[in-house]
Structure formats: structure tokens, C-alpha cells
Amino acid sequence: MNFVSALRGQAIIMDLKRPSRSRRKNLRAALYALADVAAVTFGLSCLKLAALNVARSAVLTDRVKRGQMLRQVYGIGPLLPEVFQHMTSTIQQSD
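^ that's the sequence the OP posted. Answer follows.
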């Protein structure tokens, strides 16, 4: 009872309790999640398998060796660094 209805002596219900929809919302969310999982599973099952076989002549096999690693890069123009960074030292050079 609220204050106005108590003064009049009548029991007036101001707000009606609605049935909870949280169970329905949870069920709907679970069904959407199940549908998403099914769609992803179906999509992945339709993919073709990657090529697993590689020709032996296409693979370079050798032992690991110590020494210089020579890189031969072909391109247009000189190969220069993009950023030049100069560092100064506070130690004097001894001659």
C-alpha cells in the first residue's frame, strides 16, 4: 500500500509485477549461440584440405653450417636504410 491509498483506506496496487522474461531471453541467446556454432562448423567442414604432399625436389635439405650468410637482393636503386640514427659518445678517444 502506498501513502495515498492508506489515507483512503483502500488497497490500490499501483504497479503490476510482470512475468520475468529473463528465462526467455536466456533461451533465445542459447539458441542463437547454438545456431552460430552450427554455422561455423558447417562452414569449416566445407573447406578443402590443404595440400599435404610436397615434391622432394622442391625442398632444400642440408646440414647447418657456420659462416657468413650471403643475401643477394635484387631491386631498383641503391639499398639504403630508411632511418639514419647518429649516436654521440661522451668518452674521449685514446690515441
